[in-house]
Amino acid sequence: MKVPLLDLKPQYLSMEGELKEAFAKVFDSQHFIGGPQIAELEKIVADYCGCKHAFGVSSGTDAILASLLSLGIGRSPVENEPAPEVIVPTFTFFATAGSVWRAGAKPVFVDIDPVSFNINCGLIEEKITERTKAIIPVHLFGQCADMYEIMEIAKKHNLKVVEDACQSIGTMQNGKKAGAFGDAGCFSFFPSKNLGGFGDGGMVVCNDDSLAEKLRQVRNHGMEPRYYHRWVGGNFRLDSLQAAGLTVKMKYLERWHKARAQHAEFYAQELKDVHEITLPQTMAGNRHIYNQFVILTDRRDALMSYLRENEIGCEIYYPVPLHLQECFKPLGYKAGDMPVAESIAKRCLALPVYPDLTKEQLKYTTDTIKKFFAK
Length: 375
Ligand SMILES: *Cc1c(COP(=O)(O)O)cnc(C)c1O
Description:
Low-confidence stretches: none
Bound molecules: pyridoxal-5'-phosphate
Structural class: alpha/beta
Shape: globular
Number of strands: 12
Strand order of the largest sheet: 1-9-8-5-4-2-3
Helix content: 25-40%
Distance between the termini: 21 Å
Order of helices and strands: HHHEHEHEEHEEEEEHHHEEHHEH
Mean pLDDT: 97
Number of helices: 12
């Protein structure tokens, strides 16, 4: 039996007719940039997240960059002051910190909580300086960072909060959706996310009207009116075709979240007696949407080889914490600075958890894992 880490084909086939119809409308109109499909998707996502505004953008990465630029966080080439600082967890996908750097700000890394894998709120305040402008909490793998704590800290120190909710559209904390807590919330429609497009895409949500207005301009080269540029923005636009496909997919998102949660429940049941594995935990008040199902084990590399030999897909998210990435060497971090993230990077392994997995595939996966640990 084969169990890929992700197989998008069954999902596509289940809605092929509907999708092709939506795409055909865009083709017939030949309106590829800024078509009515964009506003339609934005309305649906804003409502889904409980936010006033939503802006389709070109990717999750650009969602973060456009948010930072719109909040005025970054440095222009004509300034002489030291770079502003933005606090980010060290254990996340590169884009969280890469966008900070590209905005002209300095990423300041914080270690993570060993249970949730999200930023350790107890370590944030010691990193705040007079140059700190924002915090970017990441809702990693599908559950929220401790937004109550983070918003408290941000309020106390007058910091902006940009939520990296790229893996977490639909996640909730105490009933409130990811993206709705901070000044801006960023989503990715990269095909492997819970809501995946047919290429790259993303969304920014926010509640503030003036920030919304600026975001609208920044995503289109800071232009208002046409060919008059108020800000240096970028081409951060979402395509009409992507919006059309994503609007169709939004109808099924909750169903897919539920299927992922059921798979996670199955894994938890089947693997609970395998003492060499630590299963992912959902923190109190959180809804987990399992963009990834990540286990920890000291025998990670051997388990990974064994699963792959048995045609079970698995992956390491992420093998190198950001403070140890080559491109961030100038920031001066060294091995040992963030012990929790460094340890988890050596022990984490993501198992297949996409909605269309069959019971047989799930059972084969857990049986294979049990067999490995019984050896
Ligand atoms: C996927 C992801 C991004 C970037 O999204 P893209 O659409 O691929 O640019 C940013 N942050 C996190 C945590 C992600 O998982």
